[in-house]
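Q: Sequence in, structure out?
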Amino acid sequence: MRVSAPIEIAAPPEAVWEWVSDPTKALHFFSGVTRWEVVGEPAMGLGARYRMLLRVGSAEVGGLIEVIEFSENRDLAWTSVLGLDQRGRWRLRRRPGGRTHVELRLSYGVAGAGIFGWIAERVGAPTVRGHLQRTVRQLKRQVEQEQTRRRAAARRQARAGAA
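A: Exactly. Output:
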């Protein structure tokens, strides 16, 4: 099953990247994720591994994932090592006016479960799609609020310097 959620964020890719690439921030915006913890070294970047669990109905599904693509300010992709078969990707693309087009993609499957796995994928899809949509909206809110805080701090500093 493949699901995706796009959004436009009023911030440059570098500001969005600060959030999507930092494992310590994942639980602040990633909807439905109940666990996102670093497993081993490196803690961030290519080869980083995380234990990730996502609530789907009454179950928590996921497992151990590894970052397989880390193109700064552009793409971050992961794949499962153990647990639920999954592949995920953050895509960031610069837009005019200091904006960023962001897309979160996730493909997953219940391996070896035959027709029951197929049914489970279809039943869980609306929940997973909802989590992805809420995730990108929450990311947008976090990043844009941080941009507003930084601009306000810069204005305060400029006023203090002029006084």
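Helices lie at 13-20, 26-29, 114-162.
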